[in-house]
Amino acid sequence: MKNLIIYSFLLLSFAIFAQEKDMNLPKANAEFADKKYANAEAEYRISLSNNPKKAISSYNLGNSIYKQNHSSEALLSYEKTIKIATERPEKQKAFHNSGNIYMAEKNYSAAVEAYKNALRNNPGDEETRYNFALAKKMLKDNPPKKDDKKDKKDDKKKDDKKDKKDDKKKDDKKDDKKKDDKKDGDKKDKNDNKGNEDGKPKPKPGGIPKERVQNLLDAVNNEEKKIQDKVNAKKVKGKPIQTEKDW
Predict the structure, then answer these.
(1) Torsion-angle region of residue 54: left (phi > 0), alpha (psi -120 to 50) or beta?
(2) Of the candidates 92, 81, 82, 78, which has an alpha carbon nearest to the alpha carbon of residue 128?
(3) Is 120 a residue whose pLDDT tops 90?
(4) Predicted pLDDT of residue 14
(5) 40 and 11 Cβ atoms separated by less than 8 Å
(6) Residue 201 pLDDT exceeds 50
């Protein structure tokens, strides 16, 4: 009987010591009940810093932050709660509240997964089951869109590929034009150097005006006539004079 009294005293002392060790948690709960969420957040943070593995402090911290309309930050506290919680009910509540945040953000695929995990930890929670069904319906009615960054990346690849293809076409056209120009040049040179059958180059038509050509021909004819007249004159002068024979 004496030993039983001693053991009871020790257990009671340990409970009192544990409660005194974390005085911030009950203070935080009181502040939360009075809707003083900023004060509650401060006390929960102190409680969690002194007891990093205390899931209830992490979970309630998330609730106090959520009440101040900072859902993204609250989600971090719920995620930490899920990691450090050792009891299924604690995990279930953290998953459930995470699903509520995803629903508010219209991230229905993440909400479905959160509610599903909540039900795995507590299949009998009717509120979670209802939210799970609602999230699936919203996901069906609002299928997720493709990632914009991925679309932009794919579009950029397509544009780059198209640009390369267009550049190749331009280069091919340039090469073809160079080849055609070379062929035309070779053909022209060949025709220019072909000449007449006697090897003399062909005169370019239209190089000299017609009137000028006629004048040149007339001048040449005149010169030839003068030369011919001189030659005839010499022939007449050198011819012996025939005289009658003196009989």
Answers:
(1) beta
(2) 92
(3) yes
(4) 37
(5) no
(6) no
Amino acid at 23: M
Rounded CA-CA distance 141/134 in Å is 11
Residue 197 burial (C-beta neighbours within 10 Å; 0-12, 13-18, 19+): exposed
pLDDT tops 50 at residue 19: no
pLDDT band at residue 174 using 50, 70 and 90 as cut-offs: low
Q: For tokens 């309630």, what's the residue?
A: 60
Dihedral pair phi/psi, residue 161, rounded to 5°: -65, -40
pTM higher than 0.70 = no
Burial status of residue 139 (CB atoms within 10 A of its CB: 0-12, 13-18, 19 or more): middle
Angle between helices 55-66 and 71-84 (to 10 degrees): 170
Q: Which of 81, 134, 135, 83 is nearest to 108 (CA)?
A: 135
To which H or E segment does residue 219 belong? Answer: helix 210-238
Distance of alpha carbon 66 from alpha carbon 78, whole angstroms: 10
φ, ψ dihedrals at 123, nearest 5°: -60, -20
How far is it, in rounded angstroms, from Cα 23 to Cα 43?
9
Residue 233 in this model has a pLDDT that exceeds 80: no
